[in-house]
Write a structure and sequence with these properties.
Elements (H helix, E strand, L loop, with lengths): L2 H15 L12 E6 L2 E7 L8 H7 L11 E6 L11 H7 L4 E6 L9 H8 L3 E3 L4 H7 L1 H9 L3 E8 L4 E3 L11 H13 L2 E4 L1 H7 L14 E5 L18 E5 L9 E5 L6 H11 L4 E4 L3 H9 L5 E7 L7 E2 L8 E7 L2 E7 L2
Parallel strand pairs: 3-4, 4-5, 6-12, 6-13, 8-9, 8-12, 9-10, 10-11
Antiparallel strand pairs: 1-2, 1-3, 7-14, 13-16, 15-16
Helix pairs in contact: 3-4
EC number: 3.5.4.26, 1.1.1.193
GO molecular function: 5-amino-6-(5-phosphoribosylamino)uracil reductase activity; diaminohydroxyphosphoribosylaminopyrimidine deaminase activity; zinc ion binding
Family: In the N-terminal section; belongs to the cytidine and deoxycytidylate deaminase family.
Length: 344
């Protein structure tokens, strides 16, 4: 792998990142086409159901006569099956490109090596696993969904410097600053669903929408085992698609679905299995300590984002006692520090 290959694949990964929140439930994919060391076309998967990255990159090439001598960099193995769009592997074969450099193989069994086989069968040179670790992190939601058959689970909470996330008796307290709250709304737009438990819904009465960022509001996922939430609470207002997981039966309403689970110890495996069937690839968990501690205890999480503010409460509801390893990133937003952990 040359320095040029690394540079071009990194450019393709940067392009892929632009599809975050828009391509879902498809993976984010970027593509760069070069000819004699010069970029002649590039693109990314902009919208679910729209053209894939390879299609957009080829459409950006002004002189297609260069394609038979071109080198194509793509962050995920070109698809080989008909979905909402034709197979990208077929398009690359049709255009007779010379070489294809791939970051990650596609774990989807509908593709999983078949795209590469099509390219090689047509005489196209193929190189794989270029910046594979970076590509896997970028598409971690997609890989987790395909390999573990459940959504990618992101835990999030804000805590004071003395380790509290709410006041006494779950009294809501504004902990994070304005910039940190804006970042949280960006996270909401990035994920397909947002999950809270009964106490958070009851005491905070949150909207769980995206107000301080651009993007689509996530599916609201509420745990309300005994249907104890007042009907007037925001999460039951039908303004945003919402799924309530419960042990009781209740009729559905527009934009509001009640899913009855078996009363057992495996609540979260049941819940995640249902979200998997709905093709929900990621969940941001903004629940309270009961939900957060349960998921951490059972190892049912992939990423934890902990915002810590310099203020002190002196008492109240304790934040989860993490002891988390796998610190991946540490950032500062004014009086807030962000710690991002990855469950290895």
């Amino acid at each position: 792998m040359s320095d040029f290959d690394t540079l071009m694949m990194r450019r393709a990964l940067d392009l892929a990142r632009l599809g975050t929140g828009y391509a879902r439930p498809n993976p984010v994919v970027g593509c760069v086409i070069t000819h004699e060391g010069r970029i002649i076309g590039e693109g990314w998967h902009r919208q679910y159901g729209g053209p894939h990255a390879e299609v957009n990159a080829i459409a950006a090439v002004t002189d297609e006569s260069l394609l038979p001598e071109s080198r194509v960099y793509v962050t995920l193995e070109p698809c080989s099956h008909h979905g909402k769009t034709p197979p990208c592997a077929d398009l690359l074969v049709e255009k007779k490109v010379k070489e294809v450099v791939i970051c990650n193989l596609d774990p989807n069994p509908l593709v999983s090596g078949r795209g590469i086989d099509k390219l090689r069968a047509a005489g196209i040179q193929v190189e794989t696993d270029v910046l594979a670790a970076e590509g896997r992190w970028l598409n971690r939601r997609f890989f987790t969904f395909q390999e573990k058959k459940r959504p990618y689970v992101v835990l999030k909470w804000a805590e004071t410097s003395d380790g509290f996330l709410a006041g006494p008796y779950f009294q809501p307290i504004q902990i994070s600053g304005d910039l940190a709250r804006m970042v949280v709304h960006q996270w909401r737009a990035d994920e397909q669903a947002i999950l809270i438990g009964t106490r958070t819904a009851l005491h905070d009465n949150p909207n769980l929408n995206v107000r301080e960022w651009f993007g689509q509001a996530p599916l609201r996922v509420i745990i309300d085992k005994n249907l104890s939430l007042p009907p007037a609470h925001h999460v039951l207002d039908g303004q945003i698609p919402t799924v309530v997981y419960t042990y009781r039966e209740r009729a559905n309403k527009p934009n509001l679905e009640f899913v009855e689970l078996a009363e057992a110890d495996d609540l979260f495996p049941q819940l995640f299995a249902d979200l998997y069937r709905r093709n929900v690839q990621s969940v941001l968990v903004e629940g309270g300590p009961t939900v957060l501690n349960s998921l951490m205890r059972d190892g049912l999480w992939d990423e934890a984002r902990v915002l810590r503010n310099s203020k002190k409460l002196g008492g109240g509801i304790l934040a989860p006692k993490t002891g988390l390893a796998g610190l991946r990133e540490h950032l500062t937003f004014g009086a807030d520090e962000l710690f991002i952990y990855h469950n290895e």
